[in-house]
Amino acid sequence: MPVECASELETVLETADLGREAYEAVWHRMRRFTDERDATTADQFWLVEHPPVFTQGQAGKPEHLLLPGDIPVVQTDRGGQVTYHGPGQLVAYPLLNLKRLGIGVRDLVTALEQTLVALLADYGVEAYARPDAPGVYVEGDKVASLGLRVRRGCSFHGLALNVNMDLEPFGRINPCGYQGLKMTQLAAHVTPAPAMDQVKARLTDHFVQKLGYSCTMPSPAP
After folding, report:
1. For residue 193, how many other CB atoms are within 10 A of its CB?
2. What's the rounded Cα separation, in Å, for the pair 64 and 180?
3. Strand order across the 12-20 sheet
4. Are the beta carbons of 219 and 14 closer than 8 angstroms?
5. How many Cβ atoms are within 10 Å of 50's Cβ, its own excluded?
6. Do 34 and 93 meet the contact criterion of CB atoms below 8 Å apart?
7. Which of 5, 154, 176, 215 is catalytic?
8. How far apart are CA 114 and CA 195, in angstroms?
């Protein structure tokens, strides 16, 4: 369990639970935070649920949007193809100074995947990453997606873990650009489904351990 920060000399991760908030508003704040931060700015970890939205990555191909219907589509600046966000999905945005941490993008992807695998193991769910397709899988089905952007040596965007949500909208797209890819969620493997607040706390704990932060503290309002 992360401890409160006792001094400014410790490696600090500021955390923020944004509740439920529109994707575009959070995306624009991430970009602004990344553009305005400097060498002394603490890293931050934002947790949020989004109202229903499809997001299309920089390399996203329109043919992977099959029948979006009434769900809006947002062209964004993260890596990867199209995915879906909605209530019951935990989205985490690590806003990190990678240069200061001494890690690269591949290291961060691996750390996020390992964080998710460890979290799912807490609930008795055996999950794994794939070298050919970023994300985390359970019995061949995808339970969590990753999409990052790095600018000025700092990361934004992040991961999306399906906890207890309506998976139907994933059928309107080729998730992450893979035709026929089946999606799953934590609630399909754990009964009763864990509370979102508990999943948030466990995800944060594992992330702190994987990245080597010594303490956490609440973020100023992002």
Report:
1. 17
2. 11
3. 3-4, 215-218, 12-20, 43-49, 89-95, 154-162, 141-151, 133-138, 128-130
4. yes
5. 23
6. no
7. 176
8. 21
Number of H-type helices and E-type strands within the chain: 4, 12
Instruction: Please give the distance of CA 191 from its chain centroid, rounded to a whole number.
Output: 23
The per-residue DSSP string of 148-161 comes to EEEETTEEEEEEEE
* Amino acid (1-letter code) at residue 193: A
pTM: 0.93
Asked about 215 being catalytic, the answer comes back as no
End-to-end C-alpha distance for the chain, whole angstroms = 23
| Sole residue written with tokens 């994300």 | 135
Q: What is the pLDDT of residues 41-92, one digit of tens each?
A: 999 999 999 999 999 988 878 888 888 899 999 999 998 889 999 999 999 9
Distance, in Å, from the CA atom of 118 to the CA atom of 121, rounded to the nearest integer, reads: 5
- In sequence order, which residues have a C-beta less than 8 Å from that of residue 209 and are 6 or more positions away? none
CA angle 114, 158, 173 (to 5 degrees): 105
| Whole-number CA gyration radius for the chain | 17
Query: Can you read off the two tokens belonging to residue 2?
Result: 């992360």
Which parts of the chain register pLDDT below 70?
Answer: 1-10, 221-222
Token pair listed for 153: 């040596």
Residues written for the chain:
222
Which residue's structure tokens are 């019995």? 139
